[in-house]
Design brief:
Length: 151
């Protein structure tokens, strides 16, 4: 039996999954999912855009999220472009690092990321993760498919 309880705020949802102990007493584990908004800034250097599929993992003081594949109806991650996504992840608490990368799937998969801004509207907090000056994926001798970026 799975119950989805939608709180009055659209920022949080509780998922309750019953667990049965050996003596047949049930208890609930509550997994809280929260809504974040991610702004992904692709650099404006030549060839910075990518046609690969991009994912994001958020690490916080309460744990880490699963991989979230970033996609919407736009042509995302083009040179000089800012893309925004609404993502729902488990409550990781206060973020301190992210892992962002891609699947290196298409020939034009090299990507030069500028920065990532995560916004949690529920408490009006934003976190900016600035990228290094390297490409992710197929570019010259690069074989790195993701970066871990600290706050």
């Amino acid at each position: 039996m799975n119950l989805l309880l939608d709180l009055s705020s659209s920022a949080t949802k509780h998922y309750q999954m019953p667990q049965v102990l050996p003596n047949h007493h049930a208890f609930y584990i509550v997994i809280v999912e929260v809504t974040w908004y991610a702004w992904i800034y692709t650099s404006d250097v030549r060839g910075a855009g990518t046609d690969a599929n991009v994912y994001l993992v958020v690490y916080g003081n309460k744990g880490k999220s699963d991989e979230v594949w970033l996609d919407n109806e736009s042509n995302n991650f083009e040179t000089g472009q800012t893309d925004n996504f609404k993502i729902e992840i488990t409550d990781v608490g206060r973020p301190y690092k992210i892992r962002i990368g891609h699947d290196n799937k298409n020939p034009a998969s090299a990507w030069h990321l500028n920065k990532v801004c995560l916004v949690f509207w529920f408490v009006s907090r934003s976190y900016i993760f600035r990228q290094h000056t390297k490409y992710i994926g197929r570019k010259l001798n690069s074989i790195q498919l993701c970066f871990i970026i600290f706050l």
